[in-house]
Amino acid sequence: MTMNDTFLKACRAEPTDYTPIWMMRQAGRYLPEYQKVRGKVTFLELCKSPELCVEVTLQPIDILHMDAAILFSDILIPMEAMGLRLEFHEGKGPVFPDTVRDKAAVDSLMIPEPNETMGFVMETIKLLRKELKVPLIGFAGAPFTCATYLIEGGSSKVFWETKKMMFTAPELFHKLMQKITACTSAYLVAQAHAGAQALQIFDSWAGILAPCDFREFALPYVKRIIADLQPTKLPIIYFANNGATLLDYSVDSGADVIGLDWRINIGDAIRRVGNKAVQGNIDPFALLLPKDKLRARIKRLLEDATDAKGHIFNLGHGIHQFTPPEQAKIAVDAVHELSQR
Ligand code: CP3
Q1: I need a surface site. Which of 83, 140, 187, 255 has the fewest CB within 10 A?
Q2: pLDDT tens, position by position, 162-201
Q3: Ligand 1 center from residue 291 Cα (angstroms)
Q4: What architecture does CATH give domain 6-338?
């Protein structure tokens, strides 16, 4: 079967016939087909069933014609493999009942062997590569973003405990980051060996940091992971949400592709990232615009991005669970049609 490698070409800043598109969180609750699968199992059971993961990963490719697939899993799966209890509570999201806030908790974290502890992820990747006609993206959370969940015990708005550890126990914070980093590098290398064709690092909470703290407490670990991934030769995407003020540092991460949220004009970002490819960056809620306005907005974004060395169209963050799938389809079709060269 012929492979659509437009996405990989754009990652490598090579010319493409059109602008490829995928959407962060494209396999998820906005699709009734996902809801149907999810109705029978818990979220964690879904993550640990390769057959079901394959099914929901393929849904946005088959239904919406995305140009890349992203492995169905969660950034917190490897945190569970480090030895922590992980729960997902309906309507509340992830919960770590045993928070990581002191030396004993950091010391007791394991650096898991990914194939032994997360074999279901590697199995999913292998199965997907037999089915897919578009490239498969593997992923992990960035250490800082993962650390916030462990320290806070779940999602947070103010990140009091995280910043408290950063500012009052920096050595402990760095030790935690080193352990998460070692786990993440090994996990992503294993995904590459299993067959992932690009790797994305999600830094959902990087934007809560002052630039000086990002540089001291978060960026060095992203750099370490990207350096560890060099032997795989896969394109690496680094997405720092709310990261416009950190853009110069993100470029310094060593990633091939810089993910952009919607808070920056893509043309302005492209002028700052030099030779790197960019991914983004329409406001996920703009998918609610009426068809003609949505198409016009996409056209403008594509025009703003014409000087990019490579452009992968995406949302500026994950697709919202109440987005009508027909609206996502309008966006995919518009990008394909309006970007033809
Ligand atoms: O992109 C994809 O389609 C692949 C699958 C994927 C999921 N989570 C599935 C998921 C990916 C790439 C993620 C990444 C992830 N997980 C991030 C980084 C991206 C971002 O959104 O900032 C974060 C911070 C998490 C942690 C997480 N997982 C939270 C905070 C939640 C609860 C909030 C929510 O959206 O429900 C999850 C649960 C989750 N992960 C769901 C899905 C489809 C919903 C679970 C369900 O079906 O009930």
Answers
A1: 83
A2: 999 999 999 999 999 999 999 999 999 999 999 999 999 9
A3: 27
A4: Alpha-Beta Barrel (3.20)
Do 100 and 176 touch, CB atoms closer than 8 A?
Answer: yes
Given a contact cutoff of 8 angstroms between Cβ atoms, the answer to whether 76 and 146 are in contact is yes
pLDDT given at position 198: 98
Residue 92 CA: which ligand 1 atom is closest? 32
Question: Is 0.70 surpassed by the pTM of this model?
Answer: yes
- Does 263 qualify as catalytic in the annotation? no
How far apart are alpha carbons 316 and 285 in whole angstroms?
Answer: 10
Cβ–ligand 1 contact at 75 (below 6 Å): yes
End-to-end Cα distance, the chain: 24
Residue 89, ligand 1, Cβ within 6 A? no
Marked catalytic residue, from 38, 215, 297, 300: 38
- Tell me the per-residue pLDDT of 272-300, one tens digit each, with 9 for 90 and over: 998 999 999 999 999 999 999 999 999 99
Closest to 162 measured CA to CA, from 218, 202, 112: 218
Asked if residue 223 lies in contact with residue 253, where contact means CB atoms within 8 angstroms, the answer is yes
Whether 29 is catalytic is: yes
Instruction: Give residue 204 CA to ligand 1 midpoint distance, Å.
Output: 11
Count of CB atoms within 10 A of residue 180's CB?
28
> Residue ranges of the domains in the chain?
6-338
The total number of residues shown for the chain amounts to 341
For the question of residue 74 being annotated catalytic, the response is: yes
